[in-house]
Model the fold of this input.
Amino acid sequence: VEAKIQMMPAYRAWCDGVLAAGKVDPSPLDQVFTTIMAWTIDIGDYMTALPMLEHAMLHKLDMPAGFSRDPITFAIDQICDRREMRDRLADLLALLMRQPKPQDSELVTA
Done:
């Protein structure tokens, strides 16, 4: 992970350019982009990874060789696999469960 953190600044501007340009044609560089997206998730920089993940999903980019999951499944698995995320989600669930349940009259209907 440390090596990825050190290398990320070299790729950040390129990835920003890919996001700004959008998708034109399939390219071998798509796999470079999804690799950098995976690294961004691996180092825990989720806010940077979100637009990259959206781009990968919108343009149906594949993950590079060696990855067995599509981009969204990879992201969900990686984020949920982190202990601190599981702990935060467990805390949030516990908090929500302690909240009083709304009465039918309090529910907003469309």
About this structure: The chain is about 65% helix and 0% strand. The chain has a mean pLDDT of 81. The longest helix spans residues 2-21.
